[in-house]
């Protein structure tokens, strides 16, 4: 299995409203891939299709070599949504236990995993507190810890750093890089452009199409601009000039 | 395995929500106690009747009727003034020429009107009987005078006495006893419907449902996890409600308490499946509340509080598609007639059909959130 994620000519429409036109995207083992695009460009739909929450209208969506939707594959994928998605009346430990069991991690292994992931996100001392009393940043970290449960080969993170202060954001990125170096892969969506400089490859998503897909440095060179933000703006402008009345 | 983990989690969440728990366990007892007080206080009707030109015998007979007080009045005008100023509830005027009773009712309380009508009828019948028996006595004495050998059969003058026996309850058993079984079902349906619907709605809006469906859990495992936890909760709730009605409200339960609990749990399952299904149509907790007048309240009318036998057939058909109708009937049979589960097969079957259909709709309905199993 070469690619952990392989989207090939993926299209998705709701009724006659096309959200994704032609998505081609791959994630290799041990790399961080960024998916960027403005709101409404189809990032969340792409992720939902990868997780089997939505079914592709046409094209293939292979995750860990299997066509999605596939329930068993989900046990090997860690997912963190835009919202924190935690049970506030339960303690952090109870949240971790519950989602661990849902992923199929049980007994002694679950205990070890909880100890490990809570250390990664620096919540070991707060495990017995109810999540309702957590700060926003702590909730975000716990949410990430849940995604890390069970050593998933692939992490899919939907805007994991939204509403996070800079220090914590840096810490999360450090952790993601550490995961990558241990051979796990990460697909991350964001609309914070400077974060994408930290990825290995970045896909620009616009109006349901991947308009560019390469490493940040290559993209900057290709477009002759200093930052990914400029790349994005340039690409967007070109796209609008070249075609494409169907979007407007 | 995952089903049990979900059950455990839901129960933990519920146990930490003290207010909801209090609502589920204390509110039904409070409301039933209040209804008991209300319905037993209103059971006696008193009427005051003003009479004009009515004979002594009739007046006497009227006053004999329980709850009737008679005020003789001189003129019709006076009597009608009393009626208008709400001092009396009815005016009875006897017109000698036409041999007719003219009755005017205040009619602000139908039970008072009914009592007055009944009392007047009884009084007139009483008078007729008195006249008859005097006539018979006179006749007997005439016969005796002409034919001394004739002997009339001796009959005791005493009226036969009545001894009352009650198959259910006692002389004080009122309307409240009749609605107790229906109320039990209603509380279980109402709270389980609302709380479970809210719970799933919250899972959806907070994103935990998406996160749950991003694990290998089956959709059916989620639904069964909910069922199991709310099943346990409804066992506790129905036990508390039954105990409260027996010990606190002194309502007689003829049948087996275990049977009541079994029916209650079955109803809780239906309510749960219904609540979860409805919650998929709501986008906020307020929208969930909007289902109460649409889904919950109409069921009360069809559940047997008002007898449906005499109503139009379309009304009866509506009753047949509502789960509370069957629980109301089953619980009434158990509480008042002591029936066992075997003789309630029809009701149980109907509830099971509701359950299976609703569960299936829910498991399929979760497909909206994940396209596989």
Notes on the protein architecture:
- The complex is a heterodimer of chains A (248) and B (373).
- Chain A is α/β, with parallel strands linked by helices and 248 residues long.
- The model of chain A has no long low-confidence stretch (mean pLDDT 85).
- Chain A has helices spanning 43-50, 92-103, 107-120, 136-148, 166-181, 216-223, 228-242; strands spanning 3-14, 17-28, 32-36, 58-63, 66-67, 77-80, 154-158, 185-190, 201-206, 209-214.
- In chain A, a hairpin with a 2-residue loop joins strand 1 (3-14) and strand 2 (17-28).
- Chain A has a 6-stranded mixed β-sheet, sandwiched between helices. Chain A has a 4-stranded antiparallel β-sheet with strand order 2-1-4-5, with helices on one face.
- Chain A has a single domain (3-247), classed as 3-Layer(aba) Sandwich (Rossmann fold).
- Chain B has 2 domains: 2-40 and 174-368, no CATH class; 47-143, Periplasmic binding protein-like II (D-Maltodextrin-Binding Protein, domain 2, 3-Layer(aba) Sandwich), CATH 3.40.190.
- Chain B has a 4-stranded mixed β-sheet with strand order 2-1-3-4, sandwiched between helices.
- Chain B has helices at residues 2-15, 18-41, 56-64, 76-84, 110-146, 175-206, 208-213, 219-248, 257-279, 285-289, 291-305, 313-320, 323-337, 345-365; strands spanning 47-52, 68-73, 90-95, 100-105.
- Chain B has 373 residues and is α/β, with parallel strands linked by helices.
- The model of chain B has no long low-confidence stretch (mean pLDDT 86).
- The chains are: A alpha/beta (248), B alpha/beta (373).
- The interface between A and B is medium-sized, with 31 and 25 residues.
**What is the helix tally of chain A?**
7
The arrangement of helices and strands of chain A along the chain is EEEHEEEHHHEHEEEHH
**Largest protein-protein interface:** A-B, 31 and 25 residues
Number of structurally distinct domains of chain B: 2
Widest beta sheet: strand line-up of chain A? 6-7-8-3-9-10
CATH architecture of chain A: 3-Layer(aba) Sandwich
Largest sheet of chain B: 4 strands, mixed
Strand fraction of chain A equals: 25-35%
Structural class label of chain A: alpha/beta
Helix residue percentage of chain A: 25-40%
Distance between the termini of chain B: 17 Å
What does the radius of gyration of chain B come to?
Answer: 31 Å
Report the major sheet of chain A.
6 strands, mixed
Basic shape of chain A: globular
Family (chain B): Belongs to the ABC-2 integral membrane protein family.
Keywords (chain B): Cell membrane, Membrane, Transmembrane, Transmembrane helix, Transport
Membrane topology (chain B): Multi-pass membrane protein
GO molecular function, one term (chain B): ABC-type transporter activity
């Amino acid at each position: 299995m070469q690619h952990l994620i392989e989207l090939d000519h993926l299209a998705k429409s709701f009724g006659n409203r096309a959200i994704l036109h032609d998505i081609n995207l791959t994630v290799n083992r041990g790399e961080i891939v960024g998916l960027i695009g403005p709101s409404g460009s189809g990032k969340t739909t792409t992720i939902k299709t990868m997780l089997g929450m939505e079914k592709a209208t046409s094209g293939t969506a292979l995750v860990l070599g299997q066509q999605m939707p596939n329930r068993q594959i989900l046990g090997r994928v860690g997912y963190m949504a835009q919202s924190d998605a935690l049970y506030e009346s339960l303690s952090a430990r109870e949240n971790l236990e519950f989602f661990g069991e849902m992923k199929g991690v049980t007994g002694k292994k679950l205990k070890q995993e909880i100890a490990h992931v809570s250390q990664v996100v620096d919540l070991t001392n707060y495990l017995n507190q109810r999540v309702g009393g957590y700060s926003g940043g702590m909730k975000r970290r716990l949410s990430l810890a849940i995604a890390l449960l069970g050593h998933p080969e692939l992490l899919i993170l939907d805007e994991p750093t939204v509403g996070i202060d800079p220090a914590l954001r840096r810490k999360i990125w450090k952790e993601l890089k550490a995961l990558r170096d241990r051979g796990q892969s990460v697909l991350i969506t964001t609309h914070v452009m400077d974060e994408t400089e930290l990825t290995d490859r970045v896909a620009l998503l616009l109006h349901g199409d991947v308009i560019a897909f390469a490493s940040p440095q290559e993209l900057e060179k290709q477009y002759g601009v200093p930052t990914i933000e400029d790349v994005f703006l340039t690409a967007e402008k070109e796209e609008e000039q070249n075609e494409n009345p169907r979007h407007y | 395995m995952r089903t049990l983990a979900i059950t455990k989690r839901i129960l933990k969440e519920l146990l930490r929500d003290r207010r909801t728990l209090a609502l589920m366990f204390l509110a039904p007892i409070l409301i039933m106690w209040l209804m008991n007080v209300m319905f037993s206080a209103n059971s006696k009707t008193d009427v005051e009747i003003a009479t004009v030109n009515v004979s002594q015998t009739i007046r006497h007979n009227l006053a004999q009727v329980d709850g009737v007080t008679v005020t003789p009045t001189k003129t019709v005008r006076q009597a009608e003034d009393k009626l208008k100023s709400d001092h009396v509830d009815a005016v009875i005027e006897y017109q000698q020429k036409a041999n007719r009773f003219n009755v005017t009712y205040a009619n602000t309380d139908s039970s008072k009107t009914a009592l007055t009508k009944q009392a007047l009828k009884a009084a007139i019948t009483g008078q007729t009987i008195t006249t008859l028996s005097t006539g018979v006595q006179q006749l007997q004495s005439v016969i005796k005078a002409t034919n001394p050998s004739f002997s009339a059969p001796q009959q005791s003058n005493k009226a036969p006495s009545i001894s009352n026996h009650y198959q259910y309850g006692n002389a004080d058993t009122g309307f409240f006893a009749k609605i107790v079984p229906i109320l039990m079902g209603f509380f279980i349906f109402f709270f389980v419907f609302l709380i479970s619907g809210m719970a799933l709605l919250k899972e959806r809006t907070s994103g935990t449902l998406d996160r749950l469906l991003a694990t290998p859990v089956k959709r059916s495992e989620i639904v069964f996890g909910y069922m199991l936890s709310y099943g346990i909760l409804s066992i506790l709730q129905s036990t508390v409600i039954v105990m409260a009605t027996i010990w606190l409200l002194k309502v007689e339960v003829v049948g087996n308490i275990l049977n009541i609990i079994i029916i209650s749990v079955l109803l809780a399952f239906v309510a749960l499946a219904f609540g979860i299904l409805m919650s998929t149509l709501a986008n906020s907790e307020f929208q969930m509340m909007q289902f109460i007048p649409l889904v919950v309240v109409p069921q009360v009318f069809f559940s047997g509080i008002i007898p449906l036998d005499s109503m139009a057939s379309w009304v009866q058909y509506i009753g047949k598609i509502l789960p509370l109708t069957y629980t109301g009937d089953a619980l009434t049979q158990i509480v008042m007639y002591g029936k066992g589960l075997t003789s309630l097969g029809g009701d149980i079957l109907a509830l099971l059909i509701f359950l299976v259909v609703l569960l299936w709709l829910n498991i399929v309905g979760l497909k909206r959130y994940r396209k596989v199993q």
